[in-house]
Target: Delta-aminolevulinic acid dehydratase
Amino acid sequence: MTIAPFPAARFRRLRRSDALRRLTTETTLSTDDLIWPVFVREGQDAEDPIASMPGVTRRTIDRLLPQVEEAAQLGIPAVCLFPYIEPGLKTEACEAAWDPDNLSNRAIRAIKDAVPDIAVMTDVALDPYNANGHDGIVRDGEIVNDETVEALVRMTLAQAEAGADIIGPSDMMDGRIGAMRAALERDGHHGVSIMSYSAKYASAFYGPFRDAVGASGALKGDKKTYQMNPANSDEALRLVERDLTEGADMVMVKPGMPYLDICRRVKDSFGAPTFAYQVSGEYAMMAGAVERGWLDGDRVMLESLLAFKRAGCDGILTYFAPAAARILNG
Ligand SMILES: NCC(=O)CCC(=O)O
Model:
């Protein structure tokens, strides 16, 4: 970078008017960058607010559809579905995860039927269906990898069959991307893409999400034997490389804001479509402070989302998606 000495260089020259600031903007945020995570529950004509995520609601499928329709009209390219599974359906074997008629698969079909143009992303992990709240099958206190991968492949195929556009493995088992890709190809789902949660950290920022999907009570222990150590960065690159080699179409870093350094390294190292998940705890921090009048809601929302783009992300999973789209669309 070449910089003239002062006063030949005065950085304030290009900041002095809105026109000049817009002209020299390096990064832009648009509705095209957003994926909206939504929570779905059983029943008819009902919804529950999620106390730890002000402004976020868990809805029955019939109540979710108009929201997804509105998201499509706003130009949001994709929604990501998370089901609230009734405690009675959670088992040690997690069979409900690959039931073709489970809540998540019914919701995929309903959305693809009612709003065909919006892309539907899914969550592939056993935790909503697991009696012990883990993302994998537990045997003698251990989360077993290879048996879990077999279950995740069954779950993936059921979601693809239901019409999912993007499969989102959030489980962090080893070898799952290759196994899923091979099964999808074998069964003719050539166009179904995979966004791998490649660098998913064992984070304290997921707390409100576990309230939203009813997993808080179920989880025994922690997820540190499969999710990443927050201290590690080189490992994230190795995981992303591994997942791309196994056939991931897109990769994700999660959580988002505390891990922007990882986003930047991933984008610079691989140039692959890179996403970040601005998770429930990040949302709750901002929404909670806004509720108290401590922060300006629109400004922190847009600044936080722009930061992901500046860090190299192609898009962001964010609970703010509709609110941000309304502003971004002017
Ligand atoms: N697979 C999704 C999560 O684990 C949590 C997301 C969040 O905290 O928003």
Q: What stands out?
A: Residues 123, 170, 206, 209, 279-280 surround 5-azanyl-4-oxidanylidene-pentanoic acid (CB under 6 Å).
